[in-house]
Specification:
Blueprint: E1 7-9, H1 14-24, E2 28-31, H2 37-42, E3 50-53, E4 63-65, E5 69-73, H3 78-83, H4 85-90, H5 92-98, H6 104-109, H7 112-117, H8 125-132, E6 135-140, E7 143-148, H9 149-152, E8 153-155, E9 158-159, E10 166-173, E11 179-187, E12 194-204, E13 210-218, E14 225-226, H10 228-234, H11 242-255, H12 266-290
Bound molecules: flavin-adenine dinucleotide.
Flavin-adenine dinucleotide is lined by residues 29-37, 39, 54, 74, 78, 101-102, 106, 109-111, 113-115, 117-118, 123-124, 161, 166-167, 193.
């Protein structure tokens, strides 16, 4: 299908882009890589009257570490994330996810900011950002504000951005010693969206117990899910025996709320969640033990 007609602007500054969003009202939409929005336009599931292309705005494409954060500019392409040595070595859950999003064509254009802003529960980055305790920086007419990942994903295809705001940066707490993460997803075929996915981030104490943990789930609810009960249960424990890991996985699966669809029944998906969480937890702990 041919998309409905729309007006288009390609501003060269953030303030110009925000002014356009503000003046054009709810009918205006940001476009970044277009990998989610263009298919929606072509299917006529979205019909914005005005597209604000943010690709020419400087300062939105970077991967850098500060004292406190890993900072990823919202316009950073998934392929750039995948190729980043800093991310591969320091933030392996992000690296894992960046390599399993769509195919190389999608990853060359699709941005990290677009992946989370779209609010698609089937997208892979939201669960990773929940597990890592990320923050999102939104710029709007009143300036900048920070939204925690756990407050960002409100409903299916609905995130905590106002129509006149642009996500500019994602901030992930800086890596610490003895921390590691992992993202795993089951897909029916290569480059498919997830049947289910699980992100786990851990920090181990010197004694080996799990000091910090984050668990995020993909494609098993209306939004990406933070598995709080599983996190609370494992915090402070040394859960390296099989029964303990099974309990962690069971709690996470209980917190999922999958629906039956072409990718499988809800029961099947819960079993997949349990399997992926136990595997991802094991890998995250292994990476944490190897991290300096
Ligand atoms: C064939 C195919 C396979 C795919 N497979 C996967 C997959 O396996 N896993 C996965 O996670 N995704 C997958 N996707 C979806 C897509 O890759 C991601 O959603 C993509 O990262 C979106 O980023 P984008 O820059 O293309 O966003 P766009 O399509 O440009 O925008 C998406 C939405 O986010 C908003 N938006 C974008 N950037 C900003 C910003 N900075 N501030 C405010 N709002 C913004 C737009 O207004 C729009 O509503 C696939 C897509 C295709 C076409």
């Amino acid at each position: 299908m041919i998309p409905p007609s729309f007006e288009y602007a390609s501003p060269k500054s953030l303030s110009e882009a925000i002014d356009l969003l503000e003046s054009r009202g709810e009918g205006a939409k940001v476009i970044a890589g277009g990998q989610s929005l263009i298919p929606l336009l072509k299917l006529r599931l979205a019909s914005p009257s005005f597209l604000v292309d943010i690709n020419r705005i400087p300062g939105l494409n970077h991967i850098e570490e500060s004292e406190e954060f890993l900072k990823i500019g919202a316009l950073t392409r998934m392929a750039e994330v995948e190729a980043s040595t800093l991310i591969r070595e320091g933030y392996p859950a992000i690296h894992d996810a960046s390599g399993v999003i769509g195919d190389p064509l999608v990853r060359n254009l699709g941005t990290v900011g677009g992946n989370v802003s779209h609010g698609d529960p089937n997208n892979d980055m939201p669960a990773v950002m929940l597990a890592l305790g990320a923050e999102f920086i939104a710029a709007g007419p009143a300036g900048e504000r920070t939204v925690n990942a756990q407050d960002f994903f409100l409903d299916a295809f609905t995130v905590a951005l106002n129509h006149n705001e642009i996500l500019t940066e994602i901030r992930v707490p800086r890596r610490r010693p003895r921390s590691g993460g992992c993202y795993l997803k089951l897909e029916q075929k290569v480059a498919d969206f997830a049947t289910a996915g699980a992100a786990v981030q851990v920090r181990l104490a010197k004694g080996g117990e799990c000091e910090e943990i984050g668990v995020g789930l993909t494609a098993v609810g209306l939004t990406a899910i933070k598995a709080r009960k599983a996190e609370d249960w494992v915090r402070g424990k040394t859960p390296f025996d099989r029964a303990a890991v099974q309990e962690l996985a069971r709690l996470a699966a209980d917190e999922s709320n999958p629906s039956t669809d072409i990718r499988g029944t809800s029961d099947y998906k819960r079993k997949i969640v349990a399997f992926l969480v136990s595997r991802a937890f094991g890998k995250a702990c292994e990476r944490a033990r190897g991290a300096s």
